[in-house]
Amino acid sequence: MLRVILPNPRPWLSPKITPSPQPLLRIDGIAVRCCSTGGEYSGQTAQNASAHHDEQAAGRIGRRVLNPEGRCKLDTSPDRDFYSLPRFVKHVDEGFLAELTELYRERLPAGGEVLDLMSSWVSHLPEEVEYGRVVGHGLNAQELARNPRLDYFFVKDLNREQQLQLESRSLDAVVCAVSVQYLQWPEKVFAEVLRVLKPGGVFILSFSDRMFYQKAIAAWRDSTTYGRVQLAVQYFQCIEGFTQPEVIRRSPQHHNKSILNTVMSLLGLSRSDPFYAIVAYRNFKQANLKL
Ligand SMILES: C[S@@+](CC[C@H](N)C(=O)[O-])C[C@H]1O[C@@H](n2cnc3c(N)ncnc32)[C@H](O)[C@@H]1O
Question: What Å distances lie between residue 39 and 121, 197, 248, CA to CA?
Fold first, then answer.
C-alpha cells in the first residue's frame, strides 16, 4: 500500500504527479520465491496490470538480467522493517558525495522536475541550484520528512511493488544514490524510471562498494567491483528506450588528494569510497516504433 506524506511546510499538490491509493500493478501473493523476492508475476497478472499502464510510454523489458538466485537476500525480512528506524547518517564519504553533487550540477537541468528514488534525509543536490520540484521516494518517512530538498515524498517498498504512481513522461531527471544493490526487481524499476522520464530526461545511478550486506541482492553482494558496474549497465540496457549508458568512475585518489590517502592507495589500503555512476537518457526515438 502506498503511503503518501506531505511534509510541512511545503505540501505539493501538483496535478502532474498523482499518487493513487490503489497500486496499479498488483504482484503480492503471486509466486513468492525462496527468498521472498515478492515480485514474480504471472503473464495473466501482467496483462491485467498493463491494462492500467501507459503502454506507449512504458519502458519495455527486453530481457531479464537476474536469475531467481541472484535476486535473493540473506535477510529475507520485509525491507520496511529493516528501515523502520531512521538513520541520519551519510552512507558514503565526503569525497564520494562531492563527486556526486558535481555530477548532478553538470547533468541535472536547473528548474527541472526531479525524482530522488530510494532517498533519505539528504539528496546531495547542489545547494545553489533550484529545481522546479524535487520528489523523494524511500522507505523511512522520518528521514524523508527531514530532507530539506524535497517538496513532496512518498514511501514505497519497491521489492513488493515496482510501479511508481507518477505520470508518464513527467520528469526531467531521476537520481538514485547508493541504493541500487537493494533492488530485487531492477528490470521493472528501471522500466518505470524510463516511463516517468520525459524524452531527453536523464537517469543518474550512483554507487560505491559499501552496502548493508544482508540486504543486498546476491548478484551484487557476491560480485566484484567490475561485475557490479556491468550489472548496473545491464539494468539500463535491458530496457528499450535508454541511450547507451555512460559509465563514470573516479578512484578515491581523484576526490581525496591528501598525502595520507595517496600513500594508503599506493599500498592498497585506501579507505576512501570509490565513485561509480551510470548515466543514460530517455531516447527521443520511441522504442519499437515500426517505420
Ligand atoms: C544506503 S541508503 C541511501 C539513501 C540515500 N539515497 C542517500 O544517498 O543517503 C539506501 C536507501 O534505499 C532505500 N531502500 C532500500 N530498500 C528499499 C526497498 N525495498 N524499496 C524502496 N526503497 C528501498 C531506503 O530508503 C534507503 O534509504
Answer: 27, 23, 30
